[in-house]
User: What shape does this take?
Amino acid sequence: MRRRSVLTTVGLYVVLVAGSVVFVYPFLWMIATSLRSLAGVGSSGASVVPHEFLWDNYRRAVTSFPFWRYTLNSALTTLIPIVGTVFSCSLAGFAFARLRVRYSGLVFGVVLATMLLPGEVTMVPQFMLFNNLGMIDTLYPLILPAFFGSPFFIFLFRQFFARMPSELADAAVVDGCGWFKTFWLVYLPLARPAVVAVSILLFMGYWNNFLGPAIYINSDQWKTLPLALAGFQSVNGTDTPLLMATSLLITLPCLVLFFAAQKHITQGITFTGGK
Amino acid sequence: MNPTIGWIRDLAASWGVPTALVPLVPFLLVLIVLYAVIGLAAYGARKRWPRADKTIAFWLFISPWLIGFAIFTVGPMISSIYVSLTSWDLLTPPQFVGLANYSEAFQDPKVLQALKVTLLYGVISVPLQTVLAFVVALLLNSELPGMRLFRTIWYLPSLVSGVAQMVLFLWVFNPQYGLANDVLAKIGIAGPAWFNDAAWALPTVILMSLWTVGGAMVIYLAGLKDVPPNLYEAAAIDGAGPLRMFWHVTMPQMSPIILFNALTGIIGSLQIFTQGFIANGGPKDSLLFFVYYLYDNAFKNFRMGYASALAWILFAVILALTAVTLRGSAFAVYYETELATKRRKK
Assistant: This one.
């Protein structure tokens, strides 16, 4: 590394600190506001200094609407799809990486091409499909499609498996393992970093999904947290502390996951960088 | 609901299947039958061609995706073409109307407004996000102490996404009590009405989108760490200064990553929905994003035919923008393989 002058270093830190303050400020303001009274919000303006600690806002957040019910719905439509996506995509990714047979390249091209297709094109007919199945206003439309693979994650798993030595597969097959056993007992355990990274990315995506629930869910009992928050916003639009407390609670699982698995997230995002 | 499916459901319910699981029964039944057929076919194929086990395994392994592709992508796409040629409210049978939905769409002032708002959002926000994320990544790519902390701080806002982010920023940009206008007032500027002003609403959403550039920044940072150091050493020996190194080493190495992110960014930006939904389309339709208008037509007004036509128009716009981006970037993006093939030709 070339030497930097002291002036450049100081300048760099000044820019970074200033930028960080701008970036983190709304977040701190969100936390401070969630602990204020309504009167306190009016008088504090941009300040993030916590003058009051009204933890009661959080109690109200979990009691003023069926918070736990929505959390359960959100958890169901997040955790089950993660399992489904990881299973179906790792299976297909393994096939594209290790089972090179006639037409497999062509099929993989089709997988890649579907990445360009916006979900909105199939949104209306998919709604009609689930309508025919009698699944409108249930959680199933938000869960079932995950078990049928998603092109982006098939691509990620293929890249990961392709980088693993192919001798592993040959050895396992010679030992009398079938292909599925080879995948399940040899490759998938070795792909743990990819599985963890993909699961975290999927968690953030499914947990915050809004369009899906907005289409399929009408009745109160099946609402997920983001959908409930959107409805809450239009009803309680003026109760800022309550809204901020609820928003923070909804974001909390993502924050916890981030701090618990920071390394995996960076790794996962790196996978997706198109390298 | 389809009558056969209704019949299966009634049967399942009368057998004591829990109510919450009843909708699943017909679907599972179809899937079980499908996999029974696939399993039999695979077994038969294995008996007949014992050496083709790899081929059979391949098709079995991708069968979940293949089935999903058929029932959630190809099937809906084909039916979407047909539905876009009909007038259908889901209650009465669809009426074939030819291209009427498309000609209506091209005359609908709201479609024009939706296209304008969505394209403006994409064309302005994606370059801004790309530049900001890349510059921040460059700044954070030094070996100085504290960089990890800065990285965490810049990434943190990306975790507050979707509805929660919009709810927060409706208050940050609240004209009376908001954070933004209070800060502006302190330096003597009377802030605008942000989301409540038709002229300011879209710029406000764009500004808000810059808050979550952390995700792209992390990608760029990983890319910068991957640039082979010997390239910089070689450039230094050739007498290149920091600016030339940036232009002739960093940029060519990073260009494929930047292109990939810009491309996914453009596709994603055209699909923006949540912000428009929460703001109810904004004052004077200033946040009438295309997908929001499509959603409104399909699931509020139940105009399935019209909504399907809108979906195909969106698809055409996305394809066109992708093609333009790829074309426009062809000269500026450097791929490692290009050099390899050139060398081989020599």
In short: Chain B touches chain A through 102 residues (CB under 8 Å).
